[in-house]
C-alpha cells in the first residue's frame, strides 16, 4: 500500500497515463486516465486522452458536403408564391432586377438559378426554395476517441 499520486489516498496502486503523464494512482483515480500495461513498458502510447484538433481533421473537405439543395419543385414554388402576391412575371422581374425571360425560364424549370438568384427569390417572394438535407458524418475511428460536434453535423428543417 502506498499513496495515490493523484488524490493521496493509500491504496493498491496502478500505473495510468493521464494527459500524457504516467503516474501511480488508486483504483478510483484510474478512470481519469488510460491504464498502462506494465508488462509492455516499451510499447509507445497509442491511445491519448486528448489529441490536437488539427491532427484529428486531416481532410476538412470530407465534412463540407452540400447540406442544402434546391427543391425539386422550385418552378411551382416560385409561380405559386408570385401569384399569391398578385404579381405578374413582369412585376417579379422588375423587383428582382432580372429579365422577364429569366422568370419564365425559372417557372418552366428550364433554368437552374444560381445561389445569388435563389436568395433574391426567397427574400422577395418570402418562399423557401432550398431544402435542408440531413447529413451525418461519422468517421471509422470515432468510437475510439469520442464523438465531437465536428463529426456529427445534422441540419434539420426549422
Ligand atoms: Zn486516487
Count of discrete alpha- or pi-helical segments spanning 4 or more residues = 5
By oligomeric state, this entry counts as single chain
Estimated structural class: alpha+beta
Reported CATH architecture of the largest domain: Orthogonal Bundle
> Could you tell me the radius of gyration in angstroms?
29 Å
Task: Give the tally of β-strands.
Answer: 7
How much strand? 5-15%
Q: Which CATH class of the largest domain applies here?
A: Mainly Alpha
Q: What best-fitting shape do the alpha-carbon axes yield?
A: rod-shaped
CATH topology-level fold name of the largest domain:
434 Repressor (Amino-terminal Domain)
Protein described:
With 158 residues, this protein is α+β, with helices and mostly antiparallel strands. It has 3 domains: 1-50, no CATH class; 51-67 and 133-158, no CATH class; 70-129, lambda repressor-like DNA-binding domains (434 Repressor (Amino-terminal Domain), Orthogonal Bundle). It contains 5 helices and 7 strands, in the order ββββββααααβα. It has helices at residues 74-84, 89-96, 100-107, 115-125, 142-145, and strands at residues 2-3, 10-11, 14-18, 21-25, 34-35, 68-70, 130-132. The strands form 3 sheets. The protein has a 3-stranded antiparallel beta sheet with strand order 4-3-5, with no helix packed on it. A two-stranded antiparallel sheet has the order 1-2. It is rod-shaped and about 90 Å long. The N and C termini lie far apart (59 Å). The model has no long low-confidence stretch (mean pLDDT 80). Bound molecules: zinc ion (ZN). The site of zinc ion has 8 residues, from loops.
